[in-house]
Amino acid sequence: MSRLLIKAVGLVLLLTGIYFLAQNVIFFSGYYSFSQRLPTTASVLSMMAGALSLIFFRRETGNLGWVLLAVGFLLVFLSGGIFFKSISLWNLFLAFAAMAGGWKLFSGGRIDF
Fold first, then answer.
1. Contact indicator for 108, 21 with CB cutoff of 8 Å
2. Rounded to an integer, what is the distance from CA 44 to the centroid of its chain?
3. How far apart are CA 3 and CA 15, in angstroms?
4. Residue 76: what are its φ and ψ, rounded to 5°?
C-alpha cells in the first residue's frame, strides 16, 4: 500500500479515537471573578503563550512552549472547569485502540503486535 495512504488511514484512526473520547468531556465555566478563577485565567494565558512560542519562536524558546502547554492543561483540571461523563469500558478501549493504532500508522507506517 502507498505510504501516503497508510498515513491517511492512521490520521483518520487517530482523529476518530480523539472524537469518541472527546464526546464524553464537558467544559464549563461559571460567573467570572478574578480572585476565584485564578487557575482558569492562568491556564488560558499559559496555553496561549505556549502555543505562540511553539509557532513563532521555536528556536529561541526550546521546550518552554511545551512546558507552558502542559502547565495550562494542568491548571484547566485544577480549576474544576472539566466534567467527565460516564463512558463504558468498551468505548474507552475502542477510543484508545483507535488512537494508538492511528498514531503507530501515522508515525511509523505499520503496527507491530
1. no
2. 15
3. 18
4. -65, -45
pTM over 0.70: no
Cell of 109: 507506517
Q: Give the whole-angstrom CA distance, residue 49 versus residue 5.
A: 35
Between the alpha carbon of residue 7 and those of residues 11, 45, 68, 99, the distances in Å are 6, 34, 29, 13
Hey, what's the cell of 99? Answer: 488512537
22-65 pLDDT, tens per residue? 888 776 665 555 555 566 677 778 888 888 888 887 777 778 88
With beta carbons less than 8 A apart as the criterion, state whether 113 and 97 touch: no
Phi, psi at residue 84, to the nearest 5°? -100, 120
All cell numbers assigned to 41: 485565567
Q: Of 50, 91, 97, nearest to 69 (Cα)?
A: 50
